[in-house]
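Task: sequence design from structure.
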């Protein structure tokens, strides 16, 4: 699908990851190749998420290193109550927030803003069209993937974090709310705003 091209802007194909249970068992058994596989798969993605929280790339790199140390020390206690990926992001975000000196939470949204987006039942009043769905040409999508990477820093911090977790990493809405400490309605508005911004930029790119 073209969506897969748009939602993976790193330029490096994602490596297939073994089933969580199998991979965790290998990690808990001290299998170094399993750890190498995990690092190769998530290093860039953890770095990108860390950079959405802290102020510099160097600090983000330290956060990622701290995360890997925590994984090595804590994998024996991993019980599979969440996916391995969500566990990794949870560790990363906790360390990134500590490094930043404060917790980063989405700014409160005005009631009238929420009212514009959702009806009284909490559903979309005017559902947004997924920004990636409009791209039909695979070659164009691949070219625009690098632009997504360039556009991300333009987004406000909270929008960037929600977009990375939802659209890039496929984390569920409820898990994103838990990871970032935001309400479901707030999460949906942040995601919508981020998608709208990216879609506008990508539309301009396609028609330039």
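Answer:
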């Amino acid at each position: 699908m073209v969506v897969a091209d748009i939602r993976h802007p790193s330029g490096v194909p994602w490596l297939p990851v073994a089933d969580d249970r199998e991979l965790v068992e290998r990690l808990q058994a001290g299998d170094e190749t399993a750890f190498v596989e995990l690092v190769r798969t998530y290093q860039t993605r953890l770095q990108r998420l860390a950079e959405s929280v802290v102020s510099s790339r160097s600090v983000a790199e330290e956060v990622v290193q701290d995360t890997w140390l925590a994984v090595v020390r804590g994998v024996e206690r991993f019980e599979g109550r969440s996916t391995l990926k969500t566990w990794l992001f949870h560790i990363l975000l906790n360390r990134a927030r500590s490094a930043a000196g404060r917790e980063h939470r989405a700014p409160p949204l005005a009631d009238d803003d929420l009212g514009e987006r959702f009806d009284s039942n909490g559903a979309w009043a005017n559902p947004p069209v997924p920004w990636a769905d409009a791209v039909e040409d695979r070659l164009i999508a691949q070219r625009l993937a690098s632009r997504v990477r360039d556009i991300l820093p333009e987004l406000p911090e909270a929008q960037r974090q929600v977009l990375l977790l939802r659209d890039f990493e496929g984390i569920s809405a409820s898990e994103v709310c838990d990871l970032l400490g935001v309400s479901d309605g707030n999460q949906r508005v942040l995601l919508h705003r981020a998608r709208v911004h990216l879609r506008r930029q990508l539309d301009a790119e396609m028609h330039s």
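Residues 110 and 186 are 10 Å apart (CA to CA).
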